[in-house]
Design a protein that fits this description.
The complex is a heterodimer of chains A (113) and B (112). Helix content of chain A is 0%, strand content 50%. Chain A has strands at residues 4-7, 10-13, 19-25, 32-37, 43-49, 56-57, 68-72, 75-80, 89-96, 102-104, 108-112. Chain B has strands at residues 4-6, 11-14, 19-25, 32-38, 45-50, 54-58, 61-66, 71-76, 85-92, 100-102, 106-111. In chain B, the strands form two sheets. In chain B, strands 2, 4, 5, 9, 10 and 11 form a six-stranded mixed beta sheet that branches. Chain B has a five-stranded antiparallel beta sheet with strand order 1-3-8-7-6, with no helix packed on it. In chain B, strand 4 (32-38) and strand 5 form a beta hairpin. The model of chain B has no long low-confidence stretch (mean pLDDT 93). Classes of the chains: A mainly beta (113), B mainly beta (112).
Chain lengths: 113, 112
């Protein structure tokens, strides 16, 4: 499976600011996804990052709050905008495999104060 | 609404025993089923997938699928303390590859 890296691994941010999280894959992949995992909870899909076009957002997530870029088949960014303490979470990128499975990056642990 | 249900645990088993983790899902059209292991502070790691009724074995792990009962399970034989983690069940119900619904996970503790 692909090797996935994320930057930063963790950050502490002030409310009202924005943070951009990077996801890099060591091979070209068609499908990339962004998830949020809040403390003690399971994974919630934020959006599918589409190469060359706008991301597809899940219900409850909007582009103004979580803008996503996918400039090529190995890289994507997720920005968490105008942060509040409720955005404190782990943010994970994943890539799709051949039988609809997904492989996850190491995650970015975000704390908003 | 498509749902995936798991007992949150914790499930505690002694070292060397069989750990049995269960998952039920709501959508009869679900096509593929995945088990992920997540150690504390780490990201989920895929350990098994299954899409046909019956059993699928991989080393100490066996996934069991019963589509009629909408039930999938994971058996871990000869459980080790290193198996202590949260196990997430995920169900793909078709269409976009993003249509993967995760359960909340079962926390497994293997006692030496």
């Amino acid at each position: 499976s692909a090797v996935i890296s994320q930057k930063p691994s963790r950050d502490i941010c002030q409310r009202g600011t924005s943070l951009t999280i990077q996801c890099q894959v060591d091979s070209q992949v068609t499908m990339m996804f962004w998830y949020r995992q809040q403390p003690g909870q399971s994974l919630t899909l934020i959006a599918t990052a589409n190469q060359g076009s706008e991301a597809t957002y899940e219900s409850g997530f909007v582009i103004d709050k979580f803008p996503i870029s996918r400039p090529n088949l190995t890289f994507s960014t997720l920005t968490v905008s105008n942060m509040s303490p409720e955005d404190s979470s782990i943010y994970l990128c994943s890539v799709g495999g051949s039988v609809y499975e997904q492989y996850f990056g190491p995650g970015t642990r975000l704390t908003v104060t | 609404q498509k749902e995936v249900e798991q007992n949150s645990g914790p499930l505690s088993v002694p070292e060397g025993a069989i750990a049995s983790l269960n998952c039920t899902y709501s959508d009869r059209g679900s096509q593929s089923f995945f088990w992920y292991r997540q150690y504390s502070g780490k990201s989920p790691e895929l350990i098994m997938f299954i899409y046909s009724n019956g059993d699928k074995e991989d080393g100490r792990f066996t996934a069991q699928l019963n589509k009629a009962s909408q039930y999938v399970s994971l058996l871990i034989r000869d459980s080790q303390p290193s198996d202590s983690a949260t196990y997430l069940c995920a169900v793909y119900y078709g269409g976009s590859q993003g249509n993967l619904i995760f359960g909340k996970g079962t926390k497994l503790s293997v006692k030496p």
